[in-house]
Design goal:
SHSP domain-containing protein; flat; five-stranded mixed beta sheet; HSP20-like_chaperone; four-stranded antiparallel beta sheet; A-crystallin/Hsp20_dom; Immunoglobulin-like; 9 strands; mainly beta; 2 helices
Length: about 140
């Protein structure tokens, strides 16, 4: 008897009983989202810190700001070759994150930088009501 077939049957029964979107609530628990992100706010600023290890080409990450949301897309690729994986905890692959910001931000005053596997994004409170999506350039900070 195949235990995975039983698990698939069990999932279908749960989908039938609770609805097809039942498992979406558990996706973050079963498969954590990448990249990991911390968002901090002060009265007029938002700082976003993203964990993106192994980024060697800044063109492989796109950051867009649209009024009160931040969208990040890219790929985490550690590029290790050789040997058999014994333990793998650093999540890799293509990602797309959309973060709702606590308040609208200015599109003309955005700073983003990358150093030691961390992306820092600095955003500033918007006082007007206009909305437009803008790509944010990321600059590489060199070690001193």
């Amino acid at each position: 008897m195949d235990p995975f077939k039983q698990m698939g049957d069990w999932k279908k029964n749960m989908d039938h009983f609770f609805g097809e979107n039942f498992w979406n609530e558990f996706e973050g628990i079963i498969k954590p989202t990448i990249p990991q992100i911390n968002v901090y706010q002060t009265e007029n600023e938002i700082t976003c810190i993203l964990n993106i290890p192994g980024l060697t080409d800044l063109n492989k990450i796109d950051i867009f700001v649209d009024y009160a949301s931040l969208e990040i897309t890219g790929v985490i690729d550690i590029q290790h070759q050789g040997g058999t994986v014994v333990k793998e905890e650093i999540l890799q692959g293509a990602f797309e994150r959309r973060i709702n910001l606590p308040f609208p931000v200015r599109s003309d005053k955005i700073k983003a930088s990358y150093k030691n596997g961390i992306v820092h994004i600095q955003l500033y409170r918007l006082i007007s009501d206009s909305s437009s999506k803008h790509r944010v350039p990321v600059r590489l900070l060199e070690d001193k």
